[in-house]
Every structure is written in C-alpha cells, then in structure tokens.
Amino acid sequence: MIKLFKIVAFLEGISLLVLFSNMLVVKQMNLDLYKSLLFPVGMAHGLLFLAYIALATMFKIEQNWDFKKYFIICIASVLPFGTFYIEKRYLAEL
Known about the structure:
mainly alpha, elongated, cell membrane, membrane
C-alpha cells in the first residue's frame, strides 16, 4: 500500500506542475492550446489530489501519525514540489 501512496504522491506532484505550466506558460504564449488542456489536466489533478488526501488519511490511521505530520503531508500537496519532498522525507521511512 505504501508503494501506491508513493506513486500517487509522485503523479500528484507531476500533475500540479503540468497544471501550473499549462496556466502560466502556455497561456502567456497566447495559444488556444491551454483551453483544450485545462479540463483533462485539471480533472486528472483533482482526482490525484483526492486520492493523495484519502491515502494520507488512511496512513494516518494505520501508522498512528500525529496531527503535525499528517498536516504537513496534506499541505505539501498544494505546494509545487511538495509531494516530492514528502516522498523523500516522510515516506522513505515507511
């Protein structure tokens, strides 16, 4: 199960970066490409975000994490490169 959480954390981080690059870079280039990418990339990121939070909650209960660790792991999902840090710092010990 930890392997699944690591995969979801990695994919969630990638999807966040793709979503940001789509909105910040492609949109500024005045291409209509960002409009066609917004829904599928946003939907994928949303589903991966929900899976990440659900798995983090399951691991909080299973591993008996304290609230501070759980809070840091959840907040990292909204920061660019945050899930990559969590994967190396917190999930490597599991």
